[in-house]
Write a structure and sequence with these properties.
The chain is of the alpha/beta class and about 650 residues long. Helices cover about 50% and strands about 10% of the residues. A hairpin with a 2-residue loop joins strand 8 and strand 9.
Length: about 650
Amino acid sequence: MSQAITPERLKYLKLLGEQYPSVEALCTEITRINAQLNLPKGTEHFMSDIHGEYEAFCHIMNNCSGVIREKVQLWLGDQLTAAEADELCTLIYYPESILRLHHHKETATPEWIRQQVRHLVRLAQMLSSKYTREKVRRSMPEDWSFLLDELMHYQEDVDLSLSEQNDNQRRYRDAILDGLITTSSGDSMIIALARLIKNLAVDRLHVVGDIYDRGPRADSIMDILMDHHSVDIEWGNHDILWMGAAAGSEACITGVVRNCLSYSNTEILERGYGIPLRELSLFAEKNYPGMPVAEAMRHAVTVLMFKLEGQLVKRNPDFGLEDRLLLHRIDHQRRTVEIDGQEWPIRDLPFPTVDPADPYRLTEEEQTLLSDLRHAFRHSYRLREHISFLYRRGWLYRAFNGNLLFHGCVPLNPDGSFLAKQLGGRMLRGKAFFDYADQTARRAFFTGDQQALDFMWYLWCGADSPVCGRQIKTFARAFIPDKAAWAEPANAYYAHCNKEETCIGILEEFGLRDESSKIINGHTPVRVTHGESPLKAGGKLVVIDGGFCRAYQKTTGIAGYTLIANSHGMRLMSHQPFTSLKAAKETGADIHSQSFEFASYPSRRYVRDTDYGHVLQERMDDLLTLLSAFRQGLVSPQKTKGIFTSGAVR
């Protein structure tokens, strides 16, 4: 090479050379990487604000946001009737259930199984075309990888002049299928193929926040994500609340319990995570005897939460949450509360545990109750398993393949400049603010530091928090009947994010300067029924909260978005409401999804254009330098044979 190899570089090359015992091995690796760089980039799916809607999420994961049906129609549409195509799709979505149904109806004949395997192999072949054979092999269930690999690399009638070769291959393929029938393992092969197809259809899944709360089965959604082959998560404010609770933040614990009670979703606590609410129920019945038990429990934990919140705000003046200190502003005689100089009548609710002289002090019973709840949250094995996964595969934000992913907002001043927040003795803004928040959230879980635990509560509800960004009026909604007190002013980000120059400035702050870079955002439901578009700021911002949560579907008019980014461009799949998993399995009911392509790349994108491709390119450059060092005699391979100093054959 023209560039001299320095002593420091030579030391690195000698270490690198230990991985390659011969020049041939090194040349093979260089060629492999170069070939991989020229494959099309994998398909990425982006989803957000799932909010515990397990059944809809499960189905969208199984139908790959409608992509499976598209591929069946594209590649097998001329071979199948509409009914057969529907059946094949449902078989891919729920292979175990559909196979059981066919065996029950005695329609799972040997020929039916052979035909389904052929169709599935064809789909897998087409989907695997953008991956290396090694990666496809790794995506296969280990026990079936040999047979799957053999079936997928069978080519039928490639050249009619090679009829004997084709006949040999066909007989080999048919013998494999016969063996599956003879050993009664056709079902297992179909299940393995269905899983492989779904793995190949989506190379990377991004969940842009808010897995938890509202819907009933966030724990089951976490199970699906933990089983996914390639996923990252950008934390939302509801995820942060649960993360803080699992870390031991008492304010977050009471916030989680209150949310579960508010959404009639205590099953996730008691059955999903083994966190009992019996003591809370007894406490509520004793202190609020005139109220229905569920209402009394919610009121009891709400009062406890505001006490803990008050203590937290006083400990952390940097958070700027003084507007949430309201218990001491209640006039219990007149049944009013004073907020920002205005008096508001409050609901006729009892406050037997609140001492007007010291309203933020916990009673002895409340301290015992809180201690029990904290112990239950801290020692729930399944909750810790799920939250540990959120920390392993999650971040506050992610810059990935030229796009910026975050759930809430980049806090801004009214003039559109980055808002500065004094935290940890420093003034933080933009990316530095996000980095500090990410690091502190990790410290909360892994060290249990009290200031970091308190910070989790700030992230959950702070008006300047990157995952919240609005002044949440929890107290007003709980105690003030006049909805005029419920208005929640939002950070200036939500006004300025519609401006292209603002989004470009945010992208540049996070080091993204490519013309095609976009912000991918959740948190704020897109009101499709009101004519609102998920595309903002000239297409620089894509808001993908389309209303997975049933409570928001009247507002959005749809039931969620999936953003799909493949090698050709970007498109949005808008999903219609889902019926049920039972209907999907028994009748083949699917989610109707509409595709809208909004960004086409000037030229097709390849692995070399991705973040991973840049890493591969750096490695290939190092290996080319090593090859030059081998040939110059600066580094000696362990074995010398074949090609060495030149391309000549010896």
